[in-house]
């Protein structure tokens, strides 16, 4: 018996851990680069911990010479805890588990100390010192003359982080899509301020990475120090690693090439944060001697879920060819549910969750944080406990929410100038600064509207607008909150203002209207505006304290992004409509021939699907905010994967008749299965010639032919054998 088999037998007896053949190969590969492609639920952490144990116990490697790099602090803590459980005879801190940022920080600290350059971190809530977000707010206001919104600040910080993580030179900045006015100038000013004081260099988290990479390039002594410290380097979740992070690791392992990379290109969902999934596809260009292993067996989910998810992800082209499988039996087919209106969705979920025996076995997943608000409102009304994975939901501090509350406050007192100043631009007054200044000087005991009408410089349209607003506020007094919101949106022209602001400032109109619709849902059963304000405070507090439900019998609410690495017996994926997943931007880019964003949306949907162990339900609706919406093409794709076997049997007599009697000649090469139809596939139509499938939605497919785009019935194309796959033909 060789030393490897002896190790595996020993660990099976001690820990009850039994590895499959691919996992064993990964453990035993101890020299040179290895790329381990790990499908969802394939036991990657167990395999990695076993490999570390093997290096120490069998190969005799000193634990401190092993560096395990993870994507997040939570992952690092999990691996450290798992290692301590598997190998308790070794000290808990004997192996160096850390995030890439922690490693980079050590390098930066050494590099700047050597150069005698003092520095200060400006991330988080620094005590009275410089702060990244405050600094960016200040620069934005200086450039644009107005305050930055939370959404814009997030977009700005994402833009800066993306450029640094992708190591983009100055002349490439304008290639990055960003709706922030003067964004490049803001970025330049931000960097200038950070580097102004040579005795106090200001650094953000992304600077840690870029400076660490520079340090390894410029200082050979520091590079050799870290290269000699670690004999083996392991990286986890490498599909989420950015280019600068990959470059740091490349330099670190250059002498020995003992790099073990665990990743799944099918779960790469952070390109907007600078992640570089293409790096994995080009792995052998960087490490020519690399061994590639695929862990394709899923130990998490039932066969119903694994088979459909495996076929679904194959719609993507830029990926390694893998076939996820499981030895688990079927449990329950994936359920697809579509409601007439999106408001029914939350009520349906509450009914379903109420009958769940264990709430902690259930998760509701969504793409956007805003999807959780209506749900927590319903859950709270029905006293169902919940845990929210994402604690940074800024719904309640959103400027639209603040506007609505300020409009309502004006119905209680129309004398306060401070409230009026917050909303006067939102109802078409078009007042000048001088007129507003004059207003503040008049008697505070009088109504603001009366004070405004005393101004002799007003234009006729302004007088009419002020009088109309005064009348509306009087009608709103004492109204139920839902009716008050209707007054604000329609009579005060707030909806019109939203559209104009979105056009001018690049806001997403659909999102802003969804905020208003959510506020209407919260207001629906309430009698007074005071109750409405109290309800918002209550819900906001509920979200904050929901973190204490983490280990209790509570359902989990999470975005698709934050659900990665988690698993639940039953998963509901909600708000699955076109415009959400995929988003409008992803759809438009795809129509323009850019596949990258759409493929990432596919991966995000796949991540959601593969969180489910036994039951998965996909929820969508036909109407939202009174408008018709289309079911996500991904749901349609899943339905097409699920339904063909039953439909094919039912249609076989008809197909036989077509083959024998139709004027359409039978084509043995024709596509007959719906799961073979996917976006981006080049096909030949017997009448229209060559074309590329650009969308698959429900029972229809759209094909871009040479001269025009055609919408065709999927069933007709399959039944009559009208489409034939064509390899290697480019359609222009």
Summarize this entry quickly:
With 732 residues, this protein is of the alpha/beta class.
Key phrases:
732 residues; alpha/beta; Rossmann fold; 5 domains; seven-stranded mixed beta sheet; 31 helices; disordered C terminus
CATH topology of the largest domain: Rossmann fold
Provide the β-strand percentage band: 5-15%
Content-based structural category: alpha/beta
The number of domains is 5
Helix content: 40-55%
Shape: globular
CATH architecture of the largest domain: 3-Layer(aba) Sandwich
CATH uppermost class of the largest domain: Alpha Beta
Q: Roughly what is the average pLDDT, rounded to an integer? A: 87
Model regions low in confidence, pLDDT < 50 over at least 5 residues: 645-652, 657-663, 728-732
Your description of this structure?
It is a single chain. It is built from 31 helices and 20 strands. It is an alpha/beta fold and 732 residues long. The strands form four sheets. Strands 9, 10, 11, 12, 13, 14 and 15 form a seven-stranded mixed beta sheet that branches. A six-stranded parallel beta sheet has the order 3-2-6-7-1-8. The protein has a five-stranded antiparallel beta sheet with strand order 19-18-17-16-20. Helix 11 links the parallel strand 6 and strand 7. The chain is globular, with a radius of gyration of 29 Å.
């Amino acid at each position: 018996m060789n030393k490897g088999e002896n190790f595996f037998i020993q660990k099976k007896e001690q820990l009850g851990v039994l590895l499959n053949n691919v996992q064993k190969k990964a453990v035993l590969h101890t020299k040179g680069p290895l790329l381990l492609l790990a499908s969802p639920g394939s036991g990657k952490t167990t395999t990695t911990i076993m490999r570390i144990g093997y290096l120490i116990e069998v190969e005799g490697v000193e634990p401190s010479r092993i560096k395990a790099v993870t994507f997040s602090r939570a992952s690092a803590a999990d691996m450290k805890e798992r290692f301590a459980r598997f190998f308790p005879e070794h000290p808990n801190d004997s192996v160096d588990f850390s995030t890439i940022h922690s490693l980079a920080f050590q390098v930066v600290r050494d590099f700047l100390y050597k150069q005698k350059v003092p520095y200060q971190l400006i991330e988080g809530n620094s005590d009275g010192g410089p702060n990244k977000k405050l600094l960016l707010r200040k620069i934005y206001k200086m450039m644009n003359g107005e305050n930055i919104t939370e959404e814009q600040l997030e977009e700005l910080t994402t833009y800066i982080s993306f450029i640094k993580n992708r190591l983009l030179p100055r002349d490439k900045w304008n290639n990055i899509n960003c709706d922030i006015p003067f964004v490049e100038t803001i970025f330049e000013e931000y960097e200038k301020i950070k580097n102004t004081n040579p005795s106090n260099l200001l650094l953000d988290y992304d600077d840690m990475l870029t400076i660490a990479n520079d340090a390894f390039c410029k200082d050979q002594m520091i590079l050799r120090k870290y290269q000699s410290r670690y004999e083996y380097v392991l990286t986890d979740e490498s599909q989420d690693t950015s280019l600068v992070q990959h470059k740091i690791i490349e330099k670190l392992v250059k002498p020995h090439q003992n790099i073990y990379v665990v990743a799944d290109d099918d779960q790469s969902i952070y390109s907007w944060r600078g992640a570089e999934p293409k790096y994995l596809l080009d792995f052998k260009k960087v490490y020519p001697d690399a061994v590639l292993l695929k862990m394709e067996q899923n130990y998490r989910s039932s066969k119903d879920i694994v088979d459909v998810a495996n076929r679904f992800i194959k719609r993507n082209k830029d990926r390694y060819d893998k076939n996820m499988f499981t030895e688990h039996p079927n449990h329950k087919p994936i359920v697809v549910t579509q409601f007439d209106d999106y408001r029914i969705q939350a009520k349906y979920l509450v009914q379903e969750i109420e009958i769940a025996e264990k709430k902690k076995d259930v998760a509701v997943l969504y793409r956007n944080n805003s999807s959780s608000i209506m749900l927590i409102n319903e859950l709270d009304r029905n006293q169902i406990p919940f845990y929210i994975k994402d604690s940074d939901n800024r719904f309640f501090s959103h400027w639209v929410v603040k506007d609505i509350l300020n409009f309502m406050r004006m119905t209680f007192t129309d004398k306060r100038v401070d409230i009026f100043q917050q909303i006067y631009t939102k109802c078409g007054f078009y007042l000048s600064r001088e007129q507003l200044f004059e207003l503040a000087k008049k008697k505070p005991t009088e109504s603001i509207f009366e004070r405004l009408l005393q101004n002799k410089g007003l234009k006729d349209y302004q007088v009419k607008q002020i009088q109309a607003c005064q009348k509306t506020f009087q009608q709103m007094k004492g109204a139920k909150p839902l009716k008050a919101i209707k007054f604000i949106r329609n009579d005060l022209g707030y909806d019109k203002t939203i559209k104009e602001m979105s056009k001018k400032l690049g806001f997403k109109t659909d999102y802003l209207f969804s905020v208003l619709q959510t506020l209407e849902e919260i207001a629906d059963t309430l009698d007074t505006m005071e109750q409405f304000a109290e309800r918002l405070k209550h819900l906001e507090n509920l979200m904050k304290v929901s973190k204490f439900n983490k280990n209790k019998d509570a359902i989990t609410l999470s975005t698709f992004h934050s659900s990665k690495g988690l698993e639940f017996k039953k998963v509901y994926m909600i708000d699955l409509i076109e415009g959400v997943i995929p988003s409008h931007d992803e759809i438009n880019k795809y129509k323009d021939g850019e596949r990258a964003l759409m493929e990432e949306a596919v991966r995000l949907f796949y991540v959601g699907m593969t969180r489910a162990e036994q039951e998965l339900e996909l929820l969508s609706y036909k109407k939202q905010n009174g408008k018709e919406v289309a079911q996500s093409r991904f749901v349609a794709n899943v339905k097409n994967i699920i339904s063909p076997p039953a439909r094919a049997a039912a249609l076989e007599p008809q197909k036989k008749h077509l083959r024998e009697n139709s004027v359409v000649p039978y084509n043995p090469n024709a596509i007959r299965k719906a799961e073979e139809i996917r976006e981006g596939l080049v096909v030949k139509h017997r009448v229209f010639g060559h074309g590329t499938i650009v969308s698959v939605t429900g029972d229809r497919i759209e094909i871009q032919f040479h001269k025009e785009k055609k919408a065709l019935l999927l069933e007709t194309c399959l039944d009559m054998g009208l489409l034939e796959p064509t390899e290697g033909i480019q359609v222009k």
